[in-house]
Amino acid sequence: MDNALKTAVMRKSFGKSLLYTLPMILITFMFISGGKPNFSDPASGLAMLMVFLLVNVLYFLMHFTGKTDRLRAILFIIFAMSLSYTLIHNMLEVRKSMSFSEADILECKIPFCHLVIPMMILPAAFTKSIIFPGSIIGGFANISSMVVLWVVATIVLGRGFCSWGCFYGGWDDGFSRFTKRPVIKKISELWKLMPFAVLLMVILTAALTLMPTYCSWICPFKAVTEFEQVTSVESATKAGIFLSLFGGLVVVLPVMTKKRTQCSFLCPLGAINTLSNKITPFTVKIDKNSCSECYKCVDVCPLFALTREDIKSGKVSMFCSKCGKCVDACSKQAIHYGIRGIPAGTMKNFSRNLFLFVSFLFMAVFSAGSIINTFHGLLKLIF
Amino acid sequence: MKKVKIIAGICWAFAGLILIIILFPGLNAFSVSVSKLSFMKLNPRYTGGEISRQIISENCTLDIRKPVFNGFLKESNSGFVQMDWRGTLPERFKDSIDYDNDGKKDFCISVNRTESKSDLVGFNDKVKKILISTPTSYGWAARVGLEK
């Protein structure tokens, strides 16, 4: 009965859902095809069409079913896998290896990723330079574009970037969905403060050494992107750390806890995005009048953003990544997407529609290139 | 006050919507603007430093860069000097380098491209060891560690 009530409120008719999807169809058509679909290469045209259909069907279903998280996760996980595919494919084609050489570093040819940003801040302020061997402008994954994308996404979505934009988050999000019930249930919430410690550590060490230390020594996603060629004990140690952290924090622990443990316990950029949640226009709100205090939302939250105390006080913590898992789990619709300034429990549909449009559009356009590239590669492999 | 907050919230949300819509079509223009900011240049530790001298021979060019000693707040005691050989390189080559432009050679570096081997002979205590010596897309590059 409860679920039926909720579904009745959030889901829309077929026609209305289609109407809400129309702007997304138009904008993604423009961004994905550049306004002129080109089928001169059938595999590339087909890949483009598949991505266009995928994003719009998912967005339509978000309105039609009234559910958010699972549909978001489909694109989010495909994005993470595609990005890894694109990077590895690019590396193998250009360098015949997943590892980069000293020459690539000397020639500043390393693709930039948003995880470097926290380490750039102090050196940029004090030495007026960027401590990364990449390209400032032009070329694949250049520094300026990634900074612009991240800054805008962080201002608009806050930590929502971690669930709607980060091309690594999909890995632990995916693994956290492998089992139906968690094997490890009790985890101290203090661990969620760990990213702040990591952030402080990498900011200081990067400033002192003028090296992006997180990328050089810690980043688990080196295991699925690119890493330094193993030529010495030091580079072998680094590769060992990358693989162990990927195995532990991105695969094993998410499977056992059903939580996104890398995002919750390690990511330094997540810590900055957590702080930016204070300024973003979109939030998740708790309507205390409708809440029955069943705490289903607390149990399902993948980022330890909700506690029983938060529910009692009616405020979602700043650790929230707006993934929508709690919103989907609440049978009373007491927890919902909201807009800063609008009281909880009011304008729920308006807030959800606006948030979904903004966040989904960002993810759809940001991810389209890599997913098209992946689909294109797969199609060429099949045919 | 409540109404003002609601209106401000909705305006902020729509501003976010506009930002995301213009983000991708304007990405190139925004990126170019960001790239022009004073701090948007690569640290010399990555670029190898500015080119100090260029020695041109028949088939190749040797760029000797300025020594890099930069640190976070003050200059570091240890640094490096980078040399780039561009063009058609012989299988073995050897160059004597005066990195500080004092008229005296500071070290001699020899490279065997076939065996990927490099040797260094320092002519003073400031020259330490070869940090990197590697083939590149333009020829060969080497970094020699220095101390102040």
Describe this structure in words.
The complex is a heterodimer of chains A (383) and B (148). Chain A is mainly alpha-helical. Chain A contains 18 helices and 4 strands. Chain A has a two-stranded parallel ribbon. Chain A has a two-stranded antiparallel sheet with strand order 3-4. Chain A is globular. Chain B folds into 2 domains: 2-35; 44-147, no CATH class. Chain B contains 3 helices and 8 strands; from the N terminus they run H-H-H-E-E-E-E-E-E-E-E. Chain B has helices spanning 2-23, 27-35, 44-47, and strands at 51-56, 60-65, 78-87, 92-97, 107-112, 117-122, 127-136, 139-147. In chain B, the strands form 2 sheets. Chain B has a 5-stranded antiparallel β-sheet with strand order 1-2-3-8-7, with no helix packed on it. In chain B, strand 5 (107-112) and strand 6 (117-122) form a beta hairpin. At the A-B interface, helix 5, helix 6, helix 7 and helix 18 of A face helix 1, helix 2, helix 3 and strand 7 of B.
The largest interface is: A-B, 57 and 50 residues
What is the H/E order of chain B?
A: HHHEEEEEEEE
Low-confidence stretches of chain A: none
Shape of chain A: globular
Query: What fraction of residues of chain B sit in β-strands?
Result: 35-45%
- Note the total helix count of chain A: 18
- Total domain count of chain A: 3
Number of domains of chain B: 2
Shape category of chain B: elongated
* Uncertain segments of chain B: none
User: What fraction of residues of chain A sit in β-strands?
Assistant: under 5%
Termini Cα gap of chain B: 64 Å
Structural class of chain B, by secondary structure, is alpha+beta
Question: N-to-C SSE series of chain A?
Answer: HHHHEHHHHHHHEHHHEHHHEH
Main sheet makeup of chain A: 2 strands, parallel
* Alpha-beta content class of chain A: mainly alpha
